[in-house]
Design goal:
The chain has 491 residues and is α/β, with parallel strands linked by helices. Helix content is 36%, strand content 24%. It contains 17 helices and 19 strands. It has a five-stranded mixed β-sheet. The protein has a five-stranded mixed β-barrel with strand order 7-8-9-11-10. α14 crosses α15 and α15 packs antiparallel against α16. The radius of gyration is 30 Å and the shape is globular.
Length: 491
């Protein structure tokens, strides 16, 4: 696309020249321009995505305008954002000399972009286009009114945006049909674009042999599939996160476009994945994952939080089309409270005390994907349950000291009793619940009692027991056992 950066003449000369030397020079020039264009597109796209990701919620239409953005590539960048966010996107370059914004827009299926732009006609200097693509110029003093008009019009399209765009499959084929000869036979159908979409082919029940993440930025998914004696590789650009959702050695259905990959003088057919489906429930193990941005990137999911601290700090970080939920609110959903969408996945962020309610939630929404992060700062399973002897030793010590300046010094006392601090914390919490001790400022004060108290039957001990069992199961059982419990009635 040499014209994207301003001057289309090198491309025209390349197509019309009969001078072999000039053609060679033009190839180098065009390659240099193409590399430059890609870099500009990538820079603007990353800047634009950072702006969108920083928003509290995803708008129905994305409108971004900045000085210095190259007008020639804004349509390409808009297409990138449409693909990522499934929202009509308008990218504009602000020209301070003319006091105007000029740019390009791209839309999604079901949203007529030209009709949306009609709503802003009173405020636009000029615009033109069709359902899926348009160009426009808006004066700076009218820009805010223009944006409001488009946003108000887009409210009518909310139902369209909240559903996944359907794919129009042209034909179901076998793996053996992906051949160089068959791909070359599609050439007369070109050029592909609006009104002449590239054919989509469905391949069913393909066993996955290998799942890889490749590319310079590790953002491309590569699948190796095989059926009978036929083996093939398929790629999905910008889809590395899908690798975590796939189960090796399990069959998948894929929708692909076909092209020719030319490399080092050779040609081979290439299947580019447009959509992928793996039937049956899956449990994905995130327990060893450290990358916070990946943990908080599961789309169309309910993130479950047991600890209020985690909910308060992380619920707002879930993706725009996901939802953070306290596990104590699960009964409301099971009683029919509207969540606003039907989740595809459940993410278990920490350790739920009531695993049965989580299991019921999975069944209620017929969720097929469960992601187990199961974070625990307390490591209850490794700390273990306090014994009667532990309680007796600590209480006897406190009776002998009256008031203990314990706040901030819990570790020292735990070391004295040769027990983990987390176990001492539980003991203190249990004794407070039982009325044996109480806090007075920073001091833990003993309260004399005359009646016998069963410390092992307190609510605090019951919750600690449930935490231990939850950690034992979610953090230390293999994925197959967890899958069996949530999906096939195992215990």
């Amino acid at each position: 696309m040499p014209g994207a950066l301003g001057d289309p003449n090198p491309g025209v000369r390349f197509l019309t020249s009969f001078d072999d030397l000039e053609v060679v020079e033009l190839v180098d020039l065009l390659e240099e321009q193409n590399t430059k264009r890609k870099a500009i597109v990538e820079d603007i796209a990353q800047e634009a995505m950072a702006i969108v990701d920083a928003k509290a919620s995803l708008p129905n239409i994305i409108i971004l305008g900045r000085p210095g953005w190259h007008e020639g590539v804004l349509g390409i960048v808009a297409s990138r954002l449409v693909e990522k966010y499934h929202r009509p996107t308008i990218m504009l370059s602000q020209n301070t000399e003319t006091a105007s914004f000029k740019g390009s827009g791209r839309s999604v299926e079901g949203v007529d972009l030209f009709k949306v732009l009609q709503a802003g006609k009173p405020f636009a200097q000029k615009f033109g286009g069709h359902e899926l693509a348009a160009g426009m110029t808006i004066k700076e003093d009218k820009f805010e009114d223009w944006c409001h008009a488009l946003v108000n019009e887009m409210a009518n399209y909310a139902p369209v945006l909240n559903r996944k765009a359907p794919l129009h499959i042209d034909s179901e084929i076998d793996l053996s049909a992906i051949s160089l000869e068959n791909v070359q036979a599609l050439a007369p159908l070109k050029p592909f674009g609006t009104g002449n979409q590239q054919p989509l082919f469905l391949l069913k029940n393909l066993p996955i042999q290998q799942i890889q993440v490749i590319g310079k930025n590790k953002d491309t998914l590569k699948l190796t599939v095989a059926l009978d004696d036929v083996k093939a590789s398929m790629i999905a650009f910008k889809s590395a996160q899908t690798a975590e959702k796939l189960t090796p050695n399990a069959p998948v259905d894929v929708v692909v476009t076909l092209s020719i990959n030319s490399w080092n003088g050779s040609q081979e057919p290439q299947a580019i994945i447009q959509d992928i489906r793996q039937d049956g429930p899956s449990v994905f193990d995130l327990r060893g994952m450290k990358e916070r941005n990946q943990i908080m990137a599961i789309q169309n999911a309910v993130y479950l939080f047991e600890e209020k601290l985690f909910f308060d700090n992380f619920a707002e970080e879930v993706p725009y089309n996901s939802f953070g939920l306290k596990t104590t609110d699960i009964p409301d959903l099971l009683a029919g409270k509207d969540l606003g969408f039907v989740p595809e996945s459940i993410v278990i962020f920490d350790i739920p005390l009531d695993l049965t309610s989580v299991k019921n939630l999975i069944a209620y929404y017929e969720v097929k994907n469960v992601y187990v992060y199961a974070y625990s700062a307390k490591n209850a399973y490794m700390v273990g349950k306090p014994t009667r002897e532990d309680f007796a030793a600590v209480y006897k010590y406190m009776l002998g000291h009256g008031a203990i300046p314990l706040k901030g010094k819990e570790q020292a006392l735990a070391d004295y009793f040769k027990m983990p601090k987390a176990r001492l914390d539980v003991i203190v919490e249990v004794m407070i619940e039982a009325g044996l001790v109480q806090w007075h400022h920073n001091d833990l004060v003993t309260i004399p009692v005359t009646e016998k108290v069963d410390l092992l039957s307190t609510n605090t001990m019951e919750k600690w027991h449930l935490r231990i069992e939850g950690e034992r199961f979610l953090r230390y059982k293999d994925v197959d056992k967890i899958k069996d419990y949530f999906f096939t009635g195992g215990k």
